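Tutorial, part two.
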Amino acid sequence: LIPTKGTEMENVPKPGVEESLKVVEYARERFDGELSIGCMRPMGRWRVEFDRGAVLKGVDRLTNPPRKVIEWAKTVREVEIIYECCVM
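Running the prediction step on this input gives:
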């Protein structure tokens, strides 16, 4: 969730990283297919912490992760860089 100005979600507080990772964990435990996280998530420290946690919890695909997360993920598991929109 990105609380975007001018939308109905403008004043909605973003969820905490830990709360969001619980959703990822729940999905991974119950869904055997590919888990993808799109680009509409907060930037900055929130994204770095969430993306690292998502990798550790078994997410298969992250759209536009920070470069430092990509480099870190390469030390944890195999990483493939794909240059395309996650909607495609």
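The mean pLDDT is 93. In part three we will examine how such features are distributed along the chain.
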